Amino acid sequence: MKRVFYILVTVALIIAAYFFYENHEFNKYINNPPKSDMNIPINEQAPVQSKGRIEISAPISTVWKILTGIDKWPGWQKSVTKTTIHGEIKEAAQFEWKADGLSFKSRVHTMVPESKFGWTGITLGAYAIHNWFFESDGNKTIVRVEESLQGVFPRLFKNYFQKNLDSGILKIMNELKAASEKK
Predict the structure, then answer these.
(1) Cβ atoms of 121 and 105 closer than 8 Å
(2) pLDDT at 122
(3) Range of the domain at 87
(4) What's the number of domains the chain is made of?
């Protein structure tokens, strides 16, 4: 019985160390990111990454207002059920949100009006960097998005997280397009 206890304690310590290591690696990356046009670019070494592009038939000001209106995300993103913002939406602003039953703690890292918007996000066992780029093309807006996921769960279940991130990026781009073109 003692032996089983020691084995369980050892396994728990190894798991805790792995979570701590992944958290440390994420913080090390976001505190010392490579040079980029974003304050924190996606982590090209992360086990899960996705990119997308969409053309929206709406002015850039409309698309920008919808995406950066975090408090209104539940109104146009089907998976988002709650958002809480701490202060004004600007660089270093913190917000919490709930999507697909998961709770996220996020911080805006880049905000260049009608050009770039990015944030980091943390949930149990996963860390994300999410970046959006906007270009005006007359009365249309070209939106590019890229995201990286790292952490214990994206590393252990890479295929599952890759599939979900790819489909999630596509879904949110289409929802942003629908909300923007409706205005």
Answers:
(1) yes
(2) 96
(3) 2-182
(4) 1
- Per-residue pLDDT at 104: 97
Read off the CATH number of the domain in which 64 is found: 3.30.530.20
Q: How far apart are CA 18 and CA 65, in angstroms?
A: 39
pLDDT tens, position by position, 16-46: 898 999 999 999 999 999 999 999 999 999 9
CA distance 171 to 52: 10
Tell me which residue of 146, 163, 145 sits closest to 154, measured CA to CA. 163
The residue type at 172: I
The angle that helices 158-182 and 60-68 make with each other, rounded to 10 degrees, is 130
- Compute the C-alpha angle 69/142/39, nearest 5°: 60
pLDDT at 31: 95
**Ranges of residues in the chain whose predicted pLDDT is under 70:** 183
- 37, two tokens: 């046009």
**Secondary structure in 3-state letters for 116-177:** EEEEEEEECCEEEEEEEEEEEECCEEEEEEEEEEECHHHHHCHHHHHHHHHHHHHHHHHHHH
C-alpha span between 53 and 46 (Å, rounded): 20
Query: What average pLDDT does the structure give for the chain?
Result: 95
